[in-house]
Amino acid sequence: MHIAVIGTGIVGACSAAWLQRDGHQITFVDPLEPGEACSFGNAGSLSPSACLPVGMPGMWRKVPKWLLDPLGPLTVRTGYLPRVMPWLVRMLRHSTPQEVTRIAGALQTLLRPIFDCYGPLLDHANASELVRRTGCLYVYSSREAAAQWKWGMNLRRSLGVNLVDVEREELEALEPDLKGQFRFGILAPDNGSTLDPSQLVKALCRQALRDGARHDHRSVTGFERAGRRVTGLRMDSGEPLAVDGVVIAAGAWSGALAAQLGDRVPLETQRGYHVTVRSSNLTLRHTVMASEANLMINPMAMGLRLAGTVEFAGLKRAPNYERAQALLRQGLRLFPHLDTSEVTQWMGHRPCMPDSLPVIDRNRDVDNAWMAFGHGHMGMCMGATTGREVAHLVAGRPTQVDLAPFSASRFR
Q: 153: how many CB neighbours lie within 10 A of its CB?
């Protein structure tokens, strides 16, 4: 079949790569080059341990305080609160212990096979060097401080995540640059990361193009249909694109496209910021999650990336780079000797569902349209597994992951 994959982020790239393995002809449809949107600026984590949703038990107590701090870990820009409030309420409803346990179990089914699903794609694209499996350190000022996150860590362990307590001396031996700031850690040795998330996406897309894919740089405005089938994509310019099927993997822009085919889902953009510091005076061997600062730190090819903030303001508002500067200040508090003479900053749109579960499903009204979006903060983590499962759906094969938790029908 000739399948249009709308989106050239990590989910679109992996979906295309897996579909090509089944012999399908692929056309990417995206005005941007591969890896230039949210996949460009994420924290680069490839973490089987990242199975906890955004909404956690007790979060409702913290949200009012967060919303009052314009540079805090979660903020809503002026005028956007009425629009996003129903979504936030839904998120908090999913933050009960029972719901979090259910959601984490579902997420773990997508996360557990991360490296098995990336492996054949990266090998084929000669890009395996972009992924490392050096583990992640969750670090805390003390063992007592770490107790605030004990419930979530125990849930991870109950789902089979390998977590190892690390006392102060061992922590400082693992990461000398953490000395003096953190006195307790938890190592997730099976975690990994990418040296450059944008280059990883570009490598997969380049290989797809070498294997016969095309890239249509126009934007999709709608669909042409005949009964229960999509026959073409309406574009913002020129002739429609004739297709035998379509995969909607357009990240935060996917909701409007899915709605045109009858599936209305509560997709919201959580605008994320990062700063990347090209520092030569700080060396980390692991990805580091400083939980008390809500800061993810990943050493990458282009420097040390600091990420970990959420802003609700929709798809059109200009970035507020004060939020990126706040991340940099957090980094300097943790690493006072950090060389910040060369810094870049970025904002991107994370496509998020209120229950932190993506949509991976066939469209309910159209037999040849499939959905793969809403991966939130974990698109890089779940992209390859999602692509594999999309290929199964298209082929009509049994999926290797139970996709019931990721059905669009859960919102009806």
A: 20
